[in-house]
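Deliverable D2.4 — example input (structure tokens):
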């Protein structure tokens, strides 16, 4: 499972110039790479953030696929980057589970894996 809230190395990297159907076009993120996890700041509160994955690279812009409710985003939102690739950690606790795009279980079952 991704622990993105605990990453402290987010660096401001670009600005969203346009947004449509869960895909954002970002300017100023030329150092990004395909598969990188990025975070958009969508409000003044610390919990006001939206995650995405860089999916296409162009000379002056990048295309980011949004992971979540993209209707909360607007053009001008700031993009931050941490330099990590998108990965979903797997193990016995996720075996047979239904996971969302962030690797979090979405079914109603409790965790069956006990490490003790």
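Example output (designed residues):
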């Amino acid at each position: 499972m991704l622990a993105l809230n605990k990453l402290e190395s987010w660096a401001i990297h670009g600005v969203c110039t346009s947004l449509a159907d869960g895909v954002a076009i970002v300017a100023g993120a030329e150092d990004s790479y395909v598969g990188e996890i990025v975070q958009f700041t969508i409000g003044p509160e610390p919990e006001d953030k939206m995650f995405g994955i860089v999916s296409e690279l162009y000379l002056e812009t990048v295309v980011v696929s949004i992971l979540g409710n993209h209707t909360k985003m607007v053009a001008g939102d700031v993009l931050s980057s941490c330099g990590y690739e998108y990965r979903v950690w797997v193990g016995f606790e996720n075996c047979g589970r239904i996971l969302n795009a962030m690797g979090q279980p979405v079914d109603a079952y409790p965790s069956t894996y006990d490490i003790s």
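The longest strand covers residues 11-20.
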